[in-house]
Amino acid sequence: MNTSLETFILKSTPASIFDPNLDMETRIPLNNGTSIPALGLGTWQSAAGEVEKAVAHALKVGYKHVDGAYCYANEDEVGKGLKEAFDSGIKREDIFITSKLWCTYHTKVEEGLDKSLKSLGVDYLDLFLMHWPVPMNPNGNHDRFPTLPDGKRDLDHSTTHVETWKRMEKLLSTGKVKAIGVANYSKPYLEELLAKANVIPAVNQIENHPYLPQQEIVDLCTDKGVHVTAYSPLGSTGSPLFEEEGVQKIAKKNGVEVGTVLLSWHGEWYEMRLK
Ligand SMILES: NC(=O)c1ccc[n+]([C@@H]2O[C@H](COP(=O)([O-])OP(=O)(O)OC[C@H]3O[C@@H](n4cnc5c(N)ncnc54)[C@H](OP(=O)(O)O)[C@@H]3O)[C@@H](O)[C@H]2O)c1
């Protein structure tokens, strides 16, 4: 048993197991004057044929936020799910849609954005994130994952993530994005960006769960007014967190599912960040 993990989770969990402080209606203010629904439906690894139904169903039962990306190669299907939901009477303005600029589009940010908008069937995004601070060759041997002859990733060394951010800042005046942000930014990258940015990212979407609290970057974001969105909040595919004895013990003690304990940890953790 990982006792320190158990103590760590116990310290921040039980209060919100039965009294969740985050639900579908909870919105968290962003630094651009808008707000983001605290919970969202992720669409990574969601297969064609399934993701369309998942998106439509989620929105019909109350989800307000869908998180996607060009790189997930399923935005056409996500768009069909959105259409079904909108056709059923759900209003576009009540739903928060996030997409992400893929690494091979760092030098052509508007083209990357337009591709996502077209697939999703909407004329604006609520949030457009730089998926990774790593430009890749836009003219390589693959649209998403170009490689060099030796099999290594084909990176684009002619530009930088800060220059990409400058290009993204210009998107705000097009009306096609309400907010821009970043993802997978560690402290050194965010410091580098903030030193040159005219617009402070509204969001940094990072992997975050009890195995990976990433306190350093979370603290920097909190200090600079950058909202942190936790991706892979349950520990991602095949997550060993579900097998953690400490987590199972807390679930058993409180008579709830392990997933509930893990989600409660995020709710409490969020409150603690605000203090
Ligand atoms: N910005 C980025 O670079 C980035 C990277 C990764 C993810 N994301 C975003 O974050 C979203 C979520 O991330 P994720 O899919 O990696 O991780 P996650 O939400 O932490 O984990 C999903 C996994 O948890 C399992 N699961 C869900 N509920 C469960 C429950 N109650 N009991 C047991 N197992 C349960 C699922 O299994 P089943 O599939 O069997 O249901 C799935 O394998 C993605 O869809 C994407 O939108 C962003």
UniProtKB/TrEMBL annotation:
GO molecular function: oxidoreductase activity, acting on the CH-OH group of donors, NAD or NADP as acceptor
InterPro entries in the cross-refs: AKR, NAD(P)_OxRdtase_dom_sf, NADP_OxRdtase_dom
Residues that coordinate or bind substrate: 131
SUPFAM superfamilies, alphabetized: NAD(P)-linked oxidoreductase (SSF51430)
Assigned keywords, A-Z: Oxidoreductase
Residue ranges annotated for the NADP-dependent oxidoreductase domain, each copy included: 39-239
Name of the protein in its database record: Aldo/keto reductase
Record-marked site positions (Lowers pKa of active site Tyr): 100
One Pfam family per UniProt: Aldo_ket_red
Domain of life: Eukaryota
Active site: 72
